[in-house]
């Protein structure tokens, strides 16, 4: 194919009086001009992977992507393709024409003790723990399991229960275990730290142990989670229970590390894959692995995944899984987006179990303390709070800040004052984040400074204090942050430094405090009143009723007129 540079194509074409050789060149120049006008613009995607470049890049050489004038705020968006551009090279599977082997879902055998439990006792248990059952399948919801002896788990699980000091199921486990083990689709809505991970890991292990796993047909169970930290934690729980008690294998799949070893582990064959949607979709696009064998799908923290914009990736992944699968969805809230996803991908007669409220609420095991102060006072206040905490003993303390630069500054400040602390944020490599988390989890370093990258899914046992050095943008973020303490029925304390700059969130914070029965500082209510007054002033100014300082001189106004009028005042 003939190609010509853009600077050559812009030169003047020769006239008809010029030699024939020049006219031939002129024809080629005109052809090049037409090609340049019709050619696509250069690629505007950042850091396209080689397998992605052919479908994302619109330049003539898609494997040599370039960056064209993107701002820093647009770079993160450019990394994630649009819904219409995702997985263009993935074929749509026609499951109606595929001969897939049948599989079994129902492995639940109700014990005599559970069967003999009266409806009055069942209703009393659900009322005590604020458990509500909804959905089209609510009439056939199994009775809850109140003791471990009622579970039909294999004997190998008992040492793990004893080692974990688990004496009875948590409320969500008591109701979810019989539902999931009976093969039904489930939507579970529960607070963080309620034991929902084990509520689906054990039924998934029983499901996988009863299936045949031919090599090269992908995992039997797929768990999707929003962040790599949560993927790692779920994988740790799954490893302890699935491999320890059932002899099952699994692998985590997430970004930030090379995907070559992840593909190799999936090729060798695993029972369970715990993954972030983006990385799993990347691996599926290579064609090295498929999900034809998957019969058990879990969407953990579905609300968070939708907030992070993973809905297109989730849809593409589910399109690769057989439609007669069993699907379990977990969420901390029940917004319209999650409801729509559940209605589309779960069977119509699925069951919904809610522990507590579907609205945003904090864990009642957490004591919430709010200090209202100015921005310049926050650093000294934090040092004083940490000094008081460490006098009780080195209690695990998690400090949340808004910006990555603040993490670095605050870490240096704490270390200069003699506090042993580590930090984690999105710009750190995965290995450094793992090291920091391991030191914090083991207790070698009692303080961790983090951005919201660690807010959801960070499961560290016995975090005693959570400090909001910077208040998050939303009350949802606040609830998820403080949910790192008070887990597994333990008590915890959250301390929040609230400034006048956060006045817009004061009303919502008061609602969260009141719902949990916490004390509301008078200064916080004053900030609400201040914000209401400011909003009223803004509205009046927009309507033109508050015009101080808005008068403009006419175009031909003479300054001498103003001086003359001023003299007359004296």
Automatic annotation (TrEMBL):
<comment type="similarity">
    <text>Belongs to the DEAD box helicase family.</text>
</comment>
<keyword id="KW-0378">Hydrolase</keyword>
<feature type="domain" description="Helicase ATP-binding">
    <location>
        <begin position="177"/>
        <end position="352"/>
    </location>
</feature>
<dbReference type="InterPro" id="IPR000629">
    <property type="entry name" value="RNA-helicase_DEAD-box_CS"/>
</dbReference>
<dbReference type="InterPro" id="IPR027417">
    <property type="entry name" value="P-loop_NTPase"/>
</dbReference>
<keyword id="KW-0067">ATP-binding</keyword>
<dbReference type="InterPro" id="IPR014001">
    <property type="entry name" value="Helicase_ATP-bd"/>
</dbReference>
<feature type="region of interest" description="Disordered">
    <location>
        <begin position="1"/>
        <end position="33"/>
    </location>
</feature>
<dbReference type="Pfam" id="PF00270">
    <property type="entry name" value="DEAD"/>
</dbReference>
<dbReference type="GO" id="GO:0016787">
    <property type="term" value="F:hydrolase activity"/>
</dbReference>
<keyword id="KW-0547">Nucleotide-binding</keyword>
<feature type="domain" description="Helicase C-terminal">
    <location>
        <begin position="384"/>
        <end position="528"/>
    </location>
</feature>
<dbReference type="Pfam" id="PF00271">
    <property type="entry name" value="Helicase_C"/>
</dbReference>
<dbReference type="GO" id="GO:0003724">
    <property type="term" value="F:RNA helicase activity"/>
</dbReference>
<dbReference type="GO" id="GO:0005524">
    <property type="term" value="F:ATP binding"/>
</dbReference>
<dbReference type="GO" id="GO:0003676">
    <property type="term" value="F:nucleic acid binding"/>
</dbReference>
<dbReference type="InterPro" id="IPR001650">
    <property type="entry name" value="Helicase_C-like"/>
</dbReference>
<protein>
    <recommendedName>
        <fullName>RNA helicase</fullName>
        <ecNumber>3.6.4.13</ecNumber>
    </recommendedName>
</protein>
<dbReference type="InterPro" id="IPR011545">
    <property type="entry name" value="DEAD/DEAH_box_helicase_dom"/>
</dbReference>
<keyword id="KW-0347">Helicase</keyword>
């Amino acid at each position: 194919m003939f190609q010509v540079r853009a600077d050559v194509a812009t030169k003047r074409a020769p006239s008809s009086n010029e030699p024939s050789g020049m006219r031939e060149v002129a024809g080629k120049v005109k052809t090049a001009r037409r090609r340049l006008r019709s050619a696509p613009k250069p690629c505007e995607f950042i850091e396209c992977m080689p397998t992605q470049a052919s479908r994302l890049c619109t330049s003539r050489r898609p494997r040599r992507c370039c960056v064209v004038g993107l701002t820093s705020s647009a770079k993160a968006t450019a990394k994630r393709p649009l819904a219409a551009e995702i997985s263009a090279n993935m074929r749509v599977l026609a499951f109606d024409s595929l001969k897939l082997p049948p599989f079994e879902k129902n492995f639940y055998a109700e014990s005599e003790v559970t069967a003999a439990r009266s409806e009055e006792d069942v209703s009393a248990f659900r009322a005590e723990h604020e458990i509500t059952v909804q959905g089209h399948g609510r009439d056939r919801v199994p009775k809850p399991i109140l003791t471990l002896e009622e579970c039909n788990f294999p004997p190998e699980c008992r040492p793990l229960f004893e080692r974990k000091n688990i004496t009875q199921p948590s409320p969500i486990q008591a109701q979810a275990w019989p539902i999931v083990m009976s093969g039904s689709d489930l939507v579970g809505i529960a607070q963080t730290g309620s034991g929902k991970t084990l509520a689906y890991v054990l039924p998934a292990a029983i499901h996988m142990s009863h299936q045949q796993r031919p090599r090269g047909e992908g995992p039997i169970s797929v768990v999707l989670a929003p962040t790599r930290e949560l993927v790692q934690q779920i994988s740790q729980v799954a490893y302890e229970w699935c491999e320890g008690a059932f002899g099952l294998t699994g692998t985590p799949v997430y970004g930030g590390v090379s995907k070559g070893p992840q593909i190799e582990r999936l090729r060798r064959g695993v029972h369970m894959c715990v993954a972030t949607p983006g990385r799993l979709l990347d691996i599926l696009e290579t064609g090295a692995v498929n999900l034809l064998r998957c019969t058990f799908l879990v969407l953990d923290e579905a609300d968070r995944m939708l907030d992070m914009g993973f809905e297109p990736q989730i849809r593409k992944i589910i399109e690769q899984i057989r439609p007669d699968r069993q699907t379990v969805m977990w969420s901390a809230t029940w917004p319209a987006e999650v409801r729509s996803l559940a209605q589309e991908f779960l069977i119509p007669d699925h069951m919904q179990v809610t522990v507590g409220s579907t609205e945003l609420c904090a864990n009642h095991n957490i004591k919430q303390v709010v200090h209202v102060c100015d921005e310049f006072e926050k650093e000294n206040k934090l040092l004083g709070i940490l000094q008081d905490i460490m006098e009780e003993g080195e209690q695990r303390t998690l400090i949340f800040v808004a910006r990555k630069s603040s993490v670095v500054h605050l870490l240096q400040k704490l270390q200069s004052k003699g506090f042993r602390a580590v930090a984690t944020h999105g710009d750190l490599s995965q290995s450094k984040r793992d090291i920091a988390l391991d030191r914090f989890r083991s207790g070698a370093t009692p303080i961790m400074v983090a951005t919201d990258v660690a807010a959801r899914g960070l499961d560290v046992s016995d975090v005693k204090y959570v400090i909001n050095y910077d208040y998050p943008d939303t009350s949802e973020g606040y609830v998820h942050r403080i949910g790192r303490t008070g887990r597994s029925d333990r008590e915890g304390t959250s301390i929040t430094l609230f400034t006048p700059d956060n006045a817009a969130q004061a009303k919502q914070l008061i609602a969260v405090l009141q719902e949990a029965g916490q004390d509301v500082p008078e200064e916080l209510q004053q900030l609400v009143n201040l914000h209401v007054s400011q909003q009223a002033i803004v509205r009046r100014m927009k309507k033109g009723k508050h015009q101080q300082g808005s008068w403009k001189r006419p175009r031909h106004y003479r300054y001498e007129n103003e001086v003359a009028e001023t003299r007359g005042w004296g």
